[in-house]
Design brief:
By secondary structure, the protein is α/β, with parallel strands linked by helices. The protein has one domain: Class I glutamine amidotransferase (GATase) domain (Rossmann fold). The protein has six helices and ten strands. Strands 1-2-10-9-8 form a five-stranded mixed β-sheet. It has a three-stranded mixed β-sheet with strand order 3-4-7. The longest helix has 14 residues. The model has no long low-confidence stretch (mean pLDDT about 95). Bound molecules: glutamine. Glutamine binds next to α5.
Length: about 180
């Protein structure tokens, strides 16, 4: 929310379907994907969200948010579901435990400018991408950590932690394009 405000967007938290209906774009933040999944069902958010995603709502998922945008999730908890939309297979907690959190400088050509200081916190990786998916960033070993498909954007890492604004700016570009 802080980064989006910095970029001049009007921002509000979205926890209920009525709130979802009032926004032109959405960030699904980090956290715990299995909990977000459960709460989204308890609050009647899952199906409205799936509908909005299918209708082209610009959505940016960071970390747990990326897991929730993935069509397929590996190493989820039993019964864990995602909203889907991104034609990717994502593995949860791909780097191990909380202690295996790390930072890495990533070159992201699509964004231009200096490398992205990416902070990975119990992060997922993208293990498989469908044809319509663009890979925006990989680690040095080739593992995919940022993807895009239409109005959906997903990163394994948290750009907001290092005050990186370019991914959120990219989301806002999508929002503006869809409104015009
Ligand atoms: N490990 C978390 C999950 O499975 C994601 C962690 C994060 O969002 N930083 O959802």
């Amino acid at each position: 929310m802080r980064i989006l405000r910095l970029l001049g967007a009007a921002v509000r938290p979205v926890r209920r379907p009525t709130e979802l209906a009032e926004v032109d774009g959405l960030v699904i933040p980090g956290g715990e994907s299995s909990v977000i999944d459960k709460l989204s069902r308890a609050f009647g958010m899952r199906d409205p969200l799936r509908r909005e995603i299918a209708a082209g709502l610009p959505v940016y998922g960071t970390c747990a948010g990326l897991i929730l945008l993935a069509d397929e999730v590996l190493d989820g908890l039993p019964g864990q579901e995602s909203f889907g939309g991104l034609d990717v297979v994502v593995r949860r907690n791909a780097f191990g435990s909380q202690l295996d959190s790390f930072e890495s400088d990533l070159r992201v050509e699509a964004l231009g400018g200096p490398p992205v200081k990416a902070v990975f916190i119990r992060a997922p990786v993208v293990e498989k991408v469908g044809r319509a998916v663009d890979i925006l960033a990989t680690l040095d070993d080739g593992r995919v950590v940022a993807v895009e498909q239409g109005n959906l954007l997903g990163t394994s890492f948290h750009p907001e932690v290092s005050d990186e604004t370019r991914f959120h700016e990219r989301l806002l570009e999508r929002v503006r394009a869809r409104l015009n």
